[in-house]
Amino acid sequence: MRIAVIGTGYVGLVSGTCFAEFGWNVTCVDKDAGKIESLKRGVIPIYEPGLEDLVEKQTRMGHLQFTTNLADAVPNADAVFIAVGTPPHPQTGEADMQYVHAAAKEVAKHLQSYTVIVNKSTVPVGTAREVDKIIRAENNKAEFDVCSNPEFLREGAAIEDFMRPDRVVIGVESERAREMMRNLYRPLFINETPMIVTTPEAAEIIKYASNAFLATKISFINEVANLCEAAGANVQDVAKGMGLDGRIGAKFLHAGPGYGGSCFPKDTLALTQIGRKYNTPQTIVETVVNVNKNRQAEMADRVIAACGGSVKGLRIGVLGIAFKPNTDDIREAPSLVVIPKLQEAGANIVAHDPAAQTHAEKVLQNIEWKENAYAVAEGADVLVILTEWNEFRALNLQRIGDSMKSRRIVDLRNIYKPHEMERNGFHYVSIGRQTVHAKPQAVKGQTA
Fold first, then answer.
1. Does residue 370 lie within any of the structural domains?
2. What's the CATH number where 143 sits?
3. Within this chain, do residues 146 and 190 fall inside the same structural domain, yes or no?
4. Contact (Cβ atoms closer than 8 angstroms) between residue 159 and residue 54
5. Given CA atoms 305, 306, 309, 311 in this order, what sign does their dihedral have?
6. Count of structural domains, the chain
7. For each successive 10 residues of the chain (448 residues), what is the average pLDDT?
8. 297-306, pLDDT tens digit by residue?
């Protein structure tokens, strides 16, 4: 089968490359000529484990091509995937549909035979029908169907998620389009991947509802963590006890500084706007949005409190900038709230992230960047763990403590055990657990 993918961002590039791995002939299209030329040279614009090797392999095998010209991809395609951005409106939070609509208009001009137009972008309810209208208005002779096929890719595990998904959701009305989509995903049948075939509207809601529910679990356990701190309980024990219930599940019950990234913040906001549009307020999700916004700001306050109420003039080491490990994505990351607030309070920031520094340098100012965690810790008054990268999980605590001005760590990801930190003489603050009040051991002539 022949596939065209419009947009070479995160979703488009991963999806196109994985379809090529299935054996289909894929052409990825993007208006950004620089990006296309880089992709042709094997330079990947995003950090995603395994993607660079897979792009190189499929390009070499001839299954994957890149172009800026829709005429090279659309006329002969059996399916055209629209995978362009739908960023939130800065004032309302509604999904900005200009890129989807523009792509639909451009695709319409090049349709020559029956084609399934697939919305892969995360889009509001009713988009499939809107795209259908746009294409018919541009090309009333076109023979096509529009399908909603939302993506469920986790950054840092996107290839695995595409190749071994929990489910494939297809929103379509015609039998012809239904069979086309089944054939596209036929390689997954060997894994007995569930395929949900429904209406376009239901498929569009499934995407938003899924992300909103996961975001709700995160905000819920964060509020429970506050209760645990006040009551003297351990939130990790509580989460484990909850997660063993099959009706609840353990995933996304990890207390921390709040959710971020390109999906949850955008999709929760969009769902609240969709609810208002249809006069069905999504009250729970609206609360989740507010809880998460406040959560990120509160994390800076926790750091300040751990330092005795003031960070003015202090050297604060930050481990991790990306919103999660195994990605360079800093969109809506807690670090973008925590760090500026600490700087406003007079702190000097030194930081390290294994992948996100290049992006972070564009939006965060006056940060001293270091090559690893040990360099960050050297001379620091406090060390703050913001992202749970694997390389931060097994640090030599004695080495870290000896290089700091005072042994003070604020672990916003709960990657260390309190008794372990106490044994190493740290004043240790974590999330939803009791603070270890071991007296900081001053070094280098400084006081704690």
1. yes
2. 3.40.50.720
3. yes
4. yes
5. negative
6. 2
7. 96 97 97 95 92 96 97 96 92 90 97 97 95 96 97 95 96 96 93 93 97 98 97 97 97 97 94 95 97 96 96 98 96 97 98 97 97 98 98 96 96 96 95 82 42
8. 999 999 999 9
Q: Report the alpha-carbon distance of residue 190 to residue 419 in Å, rounded.
A: 47
Q: Contact 438/422 with Cβ under 8 angstroms?
A: yes
Phi then psi for 324, rounded to 5 degrees? -155, 165
Is this model's pTM higher than 0.90 or not? yes
Under 8 Å between Cβ of 123 and 95: yes
pLDDT at position 443: 39
Structure tokens that stand for 172 in this block = 């379509």
Alpha-carbon distance 54 to 17, whole Å? 7
Facing residues of 368 across strands? 350
Identify whether residues 287 and 190 lie together within a single domain. no
Q: Which residue has the tokens 């069905």?
A: 280
Name the token pair of 388.
């749970």
- 158, 188, 207 — which closes off a domain? 207
Provide the token pair at 422: 């106490």
> What is the gyration radius of the CA atoms in the chain, in angstroms?
24
The set of catalytic residues is 263
In whole angstroms, what is the distance from residue 356 CA to residue 252 CA? 23
Q: Domain of 368?
A: 234-448
In a domain, 214, yes or no: no
Q: Which amino acid is at 416?
A: Y
Q: For residue 381, give the nearest of 353, 407, 416, 410 by alpha carbon.
A: 407
Q: What are phi and psi of 375, to 5 degrees?
A: -70, -35
pLDDT digits (tens, 9 = 90+) for 45-95: 999 999 999 999 999 999 999 999 999 999 999 999 999 999 988 888 889
Count of H-run helices and E-run strands, the chain: 16, 15
